[in-house]
Write a structure and sequence with these properties.
The chain has 190 residues and is α/β, with parallel strands linked by helices. It folds into two domains: 9-105, Rossmann fold (3-Layer(aba) Sandwich), CATH 3.40.50; 112-190, Rossmann fold (3-Layer(aba) Sandwich), CATH 3.40.50.170. Helix content is 33%, strand content 23%. It is built from six helices and seven strands; from the N terminus they run E-H-E-H-E-H-E-H-E-H-E-E-H. It has helices spanning 21-30, 53-58, 72-81, 98-103, 124-130, 166-188; strands spanning 10-16, 37-44, 61-64, 86-89, 108-112, 135-142, 152-159. The chain has a seven-stranded mixed β-sheet, with helices on one face. Helix 4 links the parallel strand 4 (86-89) and strand 5. Helix 1 packs parallel to helix 6 (166-188). It is globular. The mean pLDDT is 96. Bound molecules: 5-O-phosphono-beta-D-ribofuranosylamine. 5-O-phosphono-beta-D-ribofuranosylamine (GRF) binds next to helix 1, strand 5 and helix 6.
Length: 190
């Protein structure tokens, strides 16, 4: 995707459900000179998301929505009103509907902690260890209505050591996620 106009950064909303370490990392990236996005909104499906604290810390508007079908138009209107042109899912635990995605065609991306197409859905680290995989990793991909199945933008591989458990592997991969997500954004928005 080309930048919308000259030097202006693309207005972005980050959707979260939890800790928000990817959100924090994306906010920091967005403030850098090389960033092609600005983070203008933090959206969560739950008020329990710890990452919502970054709204105060970085003075970014936040909003909590109940992601139900009959609420969708309200969310879309809100994004439109805030002139959002790009959406990054970061630990967002809801599946977006076809209609929602159609409204942001090719403009919603997600980060997933596995080497897709391997291990879509939850418990990716447990699965990689159980299967005695030598590598796992993370993927940034376009969001389609099929879970974790859209075109892959970039991936990073991580070696699984014999000492790894799901927790240690998650930690290793999360570190790589923080590098991968900005790189993937720069790859598609130049
Ligand atoms: C990350 O591992 C991400 O890949 C997955 O959920 C986790 C979210 O972590 N979808 P955080 O909330 O960004 O810290």
């Amino acid at each position: 995707m080309k930048k919308l106009s000259g030097r202006k950064k693309v207005k972005t909303a980050v959707f979260i459900s939890g800790t928000g370490s990817n959100l924090k990392n994306l906010i920091k990236f967005s403030k850098s000179k090389k960033s092609t996005i600005s983070i203008n909104l933090i959206i969560s499906n739950t008020s329990n998301a710890k990452g919502l604290k970054y709204s105060n810390q970085y003075k970014i508007k936040k909003k909590i929505f109940n992601f139900k079908k009959n609420n969708e138009q309200i969310i879309l209107n809100f994004l439109k009103k805030n002139k959002i042109n790009f959406i990054c899912l970061a630990g967002f635990m809801k599946i977006l509907s076809k209609k929602f995605i159609k409204n942001f065609k090719g403009k919603i991306i997600n980060i997933h902690p596995s080497l897709l197409p391997k291990y879509k859905g939850l418990n990716t680290h447990e699965k990689a260890i159980k299967n005695k995989d030598k590598f796992s990793g993370c993927s940034v991909h376009y969001v389609t209505s099929k879970l974790d199945s859209g075109r892959i933008i970039m991936q990073t591989k991580v070696r699984i050591s014999s000492k790894d458990n799901a927790t240690s592997l998650a930690k290793k991969i999360l570190k790589k996620e923080h590098k991968l997500y900005p790189a993937a954004i720069l790859k598609i928005i130049d």
